[in-house]
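Service request form, structural biology core

Requester: graduate student, group of Dr. S.
Request type: structure prediction, single chain
Budget code: on file
Notes: please return the result as structure tokens.

Sequence provided:
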Amino acid sequence: MAKKKSSRKKARNQREIDNRRDWHALLQCITVIAQMDPWDMLAEDDTCACLTADGSQMIFFSCVKDDEQGLIVFPSVREYRRASVEPGSTAEELRNFIESENYTVFFTFQDDVPPETRKFYERLSVDFGEGLWPWIFHKRRGDLGALLAKEDAHFMLDCLGNFCMMLKALQKFDRKPDAAAGEMLVRYYSEKDDLWLNRIAPASLLPEPEFPRYVVKENSPAFRHLKELPVSADHPKMEFDFGWVTAPGQDAPDFRLLAVVTDRETGEVLNYYDCRPDDAPECIFLTVAEAWEEYGLPRTLYICRDDSESYFIDLVQHLGLKLKRVKRLPAAARFLREMDAI
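Core staff response, request fulfilled:
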């Protein structure tokens, strides 16, 4: 037993050593980027993207310069589009913000760096002197954002390391990408040349990745129980939707997700739950399962969002139900409005 404990401790110590190495490399990379002054090289609306080595995903970078300089990393096509498209309403703008994920590198004077980050830099023996100090803020889906988790340093190092190489290549080009002409700066891996290449190219984005599909475990007690439920005689058409309570609780780090099931024809609210963003899958399935347990299975479940479809498409197929995508869910929308959720 002592050997196992010793082995775990050794592995933990090695992870800490690797993490410190990643953080030192990340902060050095950010320093090099700042020295190249990308805010002079690129406008905020210039599209800069790096494809992953297998070409399946795109990561985007934006240089912002308002009251203070910053770099934003968008980890997917969906997040970049979300930030680029003009919202149709204030409610849509707020929901886009709540559901967004991105990473921002801020450059501020030392006194404006969060105390937690300053203490962490002290432990790393990092000091940026009287110049601008970088620190990283991570906005995740459903939360207000927080300082970058220490274990995420490797991901950011990979992202910003590629952006650094893109800037170095851009310094050698005879011109910058022309956003007005539909151009972008792109970095990708060429299997033919066995090299990472950087070029100015016509702006072209990969399709948005599908939301992860939740697959039914047919042998699970929960599914077997649902399989035995009768079809509802009183509620053959049900709506499912979820929203976000627009005002986080006092000192809460995130928004509450509110899931609801309603009768599409009568408008009756059949069940609802709220939860933290990290508990969304369990909360959503519980909301639906309890409604079905009490009222029976609907013949058709109506939804209006891509991510709602990812939750239920496999489940309804196994239960022999219909899943219908529509533009509006009147009963569910009314309930969410009454609960100050969007």
